[in-house]
Structures are given as structure tokens and as C-alpha cells.
Write a structure and sequence with these properties.
It is globular and about 45 Å long. It starts with a helix and ends in a 7-residue tail after the last helix. It has two domains: about 1-145, no CATH class; about 160-304, no CATH class. It has helices at about 5-35, 40-50, 60-70, 80-90, 100-115, 115-145, 150-175, 180-190, 195-200, 210-215, 225-240, 250-265, 265-275, 275-295. It is mainly α. Helices cover about 75% and strands about 0% of the residues.
Length: about 300
Amino acid sequence: MLSRVAESLYWMARNVERAEDLARLLDVTATRSFDRLEDALPRWQAIYTVAGITPPENAADRLQTVDDVVFDTTSRFSIAASVRIARQNAVGVRAELTTEVWECINGLYLFVEAQSARAVGPDGTSTFLRSVRDTAQAFGGICDATLAHDDAWEFLRIGRFLERARMTSRILRAVEDDDVAPHVWQLTLEACCASSPFARARRQSADPVEALAFLALSPVFPRSLRFCVREIDAALHMLSGAPAGTFADNAERHSGRIAASLDFAGPFDLVREGARPFAVRLAAQLDELGSAIVSTYFPAVPVG
């Protein structure tokens, strides 16, 4: 496979996943803000941090946050920008995609481009965000169901799970260590699509330690850090053909190291380190893993 094609598939998957995760985070925050108005402003400010967007000088409210994080065309981190970048990459590898995959991502692009903060309005924000979330989720399922599970699919898999792990770590990074209020961790679980799975696995536990452990260390929940890194590591080994437990390149060395640290960690290790320091460390390691993947598979080749 050409490096150019692999890179487009990788970034297409990452940006679709980013759009989905931000749409869910915004929708959950908006819903929860009506329940606890006194916590609304800090929550909206935290979304800027998770999204990697510079917050405004004045405290952001709901409408400004939606405008900045969803529709801002000057930032490549907004939902609209992510969808646009994903579609641009899809155009470049149209021959590698099935008709169903192309129609899904092109439909998402046309839907988002037709909207604006004014057109959506405060009453339609939730409906819009859920449409973005649902279409982005459908994209992953359509890729899995219609594409051959060859090298192209592996790069889509790497991009999807790397971005998902980064977003989970960023959401955890926004939680203060001394904040053990049940509603804070309920919001965190919902932002990671983990509320119902956690309730079934932990029998309605409200312990923040168990919530943190579930989001970080669950081997079966598809948005936990451990699950995502394991998927990335498996995909990298499928590409290189290296046996499990070894590494053939720098990307596999990074993924194996992170996976092993999560495999052998326990809830009390996370408590000892602290939720925020743990999330900061994992986010930095995931950024290093992303850089290693890019340098290994998409090296910049000088021309001339």
C-alpha cells in the first residue's frame, strides 16, 4: 500500500472519531448543565481544554462554546473542521473505499456544512450533535462491515482507536483529583459512552476509583484506554508481521510499552498516582505513539 493512501485512511478515521467524541461531550455537557446550573461555566471551559482549542478570554457559555467547538472554521480542531478534513482525505482515497463508506462520510460532510450556529439555534443543538454522533458511529460500523480487513482497514483501525484513546485521556485529564462528587464522574462516564456499561459491570457503584479504573483499565469496554491501546498494538503487529510481544519498529515499541503498563496496573496504582497525573502521562505517551506511527509509516520524503 502506498504511504500516501495509508496516511489518508489514518487521518480520515482519526477525524471522524474526533467529531463523534466532541459531539457526545458537548451534548452530555449541555444536558447536565440544565441539572446543575452552578457548575455550567467550568464545564464549558473544560470542553475547550479537551478539544485543544484556546478558550476565550471571558468565561464561555453554552452558545459560544458550541459556536467555537462545532462551527469555527479557523480552527482545525472543531467538529466542522474535523469532518471537512476527513472528507478531504476520503476524496484522495475514493478508490479504496466502498460506496457505503463514501456515502456515509460525504453525507456527514454535507450535513455539517449546511448548518451553522444560527441555523441550529439553542433548541436544535442536541438534535444536531446527536446526528453527528450517530453518523460518525455508523461510519465505523460500515467500515468494519464492508471493507476487506486488510492493510487499509488496519490503518483505519489504528486511527480510530488512537484518537479515541486520546479523547478518553483528555476527558480524564479535565477531572480534578479532589473532585469525587458522583455527578462529576457520572458526567465523565457519559462523555465516554460508558455510563450503562459501567453500571452493568459495577452494579451501580458510585465509587470514583472504580469509574476511573473502568475507563482506564477495562479489557472489554471498547473506549477504555487499555482496550484502545491493545487494538492499536494488534493492528501494528498485523501490518509488520512481527510476533506478539516483540516489536519491529518504534511505533510497536511505544504501543507495547503503553499496553504493558496498562495490563499490569491496578485501581490502587491509579489512586496512588492520581487521576489527573495519570491522564496527563497517558496523553503524552499517546501523542508520542502518534508521532512514532507517523514517522514509521508516513515519512516525509524530500523532493528535489
